[in-house]
Amino acid sequence: MQMRFAVDPAPDPALxxxxxxxxxxxxxxxxxVVAMDGLPPADRPEFCFAGRSNVGKSSLINALTQRxxxxxxxxxxxxxxxxxFFDLGGAAWMVDVPGYGFAEAPVKTVARWQRLLRDYLAGxxxxxxxxxxxxxxxxxxxxxxxxxxxxxxxAVSCQIVMTKADKVGDAHLRRTLxxxxxxxxxxxxxxxxxxxxxxxxxxxxEGVRAxxxxxxxxG
Length: 219
Known about the structure:
By secondary structure, the chain is of the alpha/beta class. The protein has one domain: P-loop containing nucleotide triphosphate hydrolases (Rossmann fold), CATH 3.40.50. The chain is built from six helices and eight strands, in the order E-H-E-E-H-E-E-H-E-H-E-H-E-H. The protein has helices at 13-24, 57-65, 107-123, 142-154, 170-184, 205-218; strands spanning 6-7, 27-33, 46-51, 83-88, 92-96, 127-135, 158-163, 193-196. Helix 1 crosses helix 6 and helix 3 runs parallel beside helix 4. It is globular and about 45 Å long. Belongs to the TRAFAC class TrmE-Era-EngA-EngB-Septin-like GTPase superfamily. EngB GTPase family. Keywords: Cell cycle, Cell division, GTP-binding, Magnesium, Metal-binding, Nucleotide-binding, Septation. It comes from Oceanicella actignis. Its cofactor is Mg(2+).
């Protein structure tokens, strides 16, 4: 049976180079947003990184930009408590959103984060794509399907990025990818390419940069 998703496709070299310059150029943290009325102006293309708590969002952002502490990392799930907006040289907004699923925080606080996340994902007009991060060790979980269902209903494009590929062997990774393709086939807004990354080893970074750059160039 022909697979629906291309896995780890090689990006166009010219696009990858423009993406490298975008992420390694001026990057600045602008603000952390705790309510929808605090969002910065919707004046440029925007993309965000979403995923279960402790999936490696902040580590991926730091690796993409080659900054050690642009995004705060922690071994404690749920540390990202706001929509964190980063300005990529005035060309785009990059957003690190609160992790969904398990978080070591009071129930009311977690509920507030989740409500903000859902309102943002469904209601930001300049949001071009959500990069949904999936841990290569664990694959697609119920919480991932809930976010993907939300994006389907809101007609928001998303793309799967497998993280922590260095933490598993090749056979395990293949099984995870095979299972993910079957799981993802039911979601209509998932872009048909899966990117495989390792922030620690630098794997797949140029593919993510190129994918983000293509969104910026679409305007």
